[in-house]
Amino acid sequence: MSEQMYSNSKLSVAILGAGAWGASLANLAAANGHQVRVWSRQGSQIQAVLKDVQIVLSAISMIGVRDVASQVQSFPLSPETIFVTATKGLDPQTTCTPSQIWQTVFPNHAVVVLSGPNLSKEIQMELPAATVVASNIPTAAEIVQLVFSSGRFRVYTNPDPLGVELGGTLKNVIAIAAGVCDGLQLGTNAKAALVTRGLTEMVRIGNNWGAKTETFYGLSGLGDLLATCNSPLSRNYQVGYQLAGGKSLTETLANLQGTAEGVNTCQVLMQRAKQQNIPVPITEQVYRLLQGEVTPRQALDELMLRDIKPEYNY
Ligand SMILES: NC(=O)c1ccc[n+]([C@@H]2O[C@H](COP(=O)([O-])OP(=O)(O)OC[C@H]3O[C@@H](n4cnc5c(N)ncnc54)[C@H](O)[C@@H]3O)[C@@H](O)[C@H]2O)c1
Ligand SMILES: O=P(O)(O)OC[C@H](O)CO
After folding, report:
1. At residue 6, does pLDDT exceed 90?
2. Which of 37, 73, 107, 288 is paired with 188 by a 20 to 30 Å CA distance?
3. What is the mean pLDDT of the chain?
4. Ligand 2 centroid to 121 CA: how many Å?
5. Architecture per CATH, 162-304
6. 63 in contact with ligand 1, CB cutoff 6 A
7. CATH superfamily of 3-159
8. Ligand nearest to the CA of 233
9. Is 204 annotated as ligand-binding?
10. Global pTM?
11. Per-residue pLDDT tens digits for 71-97
12. Which residues are catalytic?
């Protein structure tokens, strides 16, 4: 496949998942003149949506990715079909990322990760935004870049799909902590410290996984961390904010519109951090808060009263 071949052509795109993010991405591709079909488990037959498509984009919540990938596997697709994953989560059974699941199920296809500071409500309002598409196969990322790029959605390519994917996934846990920080009215200094040390924690986990440090300082890492930690539109931020206000996790999730992936991601991360011996103090306090083991104030004290140490181990 070549980018040249695709640059002026209108592609056939299947979007799996008709939630907030799937619908927004469908609108962006359709606005560029591509033929877009959307599938959701409540609606049309998956077979009809997949027929003759060149791109399959998944915006399914993490909980459904493995099942949907194996459903897709039972239908014939051209070997040229590119898979794009826009899910920000980790598989609880294997700790795999969504792209690792898609690549395992479709080992001979190109897989592209799409991730960035992309609060879907703002994108639906046609406000300007930027994102990143990353793949081990650069031409596949370039094709996906062309499908979604427009005057209101600027798409960058990146050669580190794991780093791009982990940035979008790990920041959700820090966004829960940021919601707690604002809910407790801890101030701007505290928030700056939390987000900065949160980024350090993301880099530490990402490096252990094999991702590149510099990717976390780009749009899909720092960019998405800033967007999610500073916006009440973020479901993950909302979870932390409600917990700080004294609501239980069950009550908070019952009233939440859409998916807050950070809740599940936090459990998976703790499991992996323990196995790999990675220090993750913020994630650990978010985990204990979600488990009901500490109050938001106790979690804050635990973080502040750890042994003092250098900022970096150079
Ligand atoms: N909303 C955003 O601003 C945004 C932006 C970027 C990335 N994301 C990521 O995209 C993913 C989806 O987010 P969303 O906001 O669209 O969530 P949502 O809750 O609005 O929609 C989730 C979609 O996944 C489907 N789904 C859920 N469980 C399923 C299952 N078991 N089998 C099949 N389908 C299932 C739902 O039917 C729905 O179509 C999440 O991983 C999220 O982190 C969201
Ligand atoms: O609503 P959230 O917390 O899932 O965040 C949405 C996006 O990930 C922001 O980029």
Report:
1. no
2. 288
3. 96
4. 10
5. Orthogonal Bundle (1.10)
6. yes
7. NAD(P)-binding Rossmann-like Domain (3.40.50.720)
8. 2
9. no
10. 0.97
11. 999 999 999 999 999 999 999 999 999
12. 171
Under 8 Å between Cβ of 276 and 269: no
- Say yes or no to pLDDT of 44 above 80: no
pLDDT in tens, 186-214: 999 999 999 999 999 999 999 999 999 99
Pocket probe mutation, ligand 1, options 60, 63, 131, 237, max atoms within 8 Å of Cβ? 60
Taking the domains of the chain in order of start, what are their residue ranges? 3-159, 162-304
Q: Which atom of ligand 2 is nearest to 236's Cα?
A: 3
> Does the beta carbon of 67 sit less than 6 angstroms from any atom of ligand 1?
yes
pLDDT over threshold 60, residue 3: no
Residues with CB under 6 A from ligand 2: 88, 117-119, 172, 175, 224, 227-228, 234-236
- For residues 253-263, give the mean pLDDT: 96
Could you tell me the distance, in angstroms and rounded to a whole number, from the CA of residue 58 to the centre of ligand 1? 9
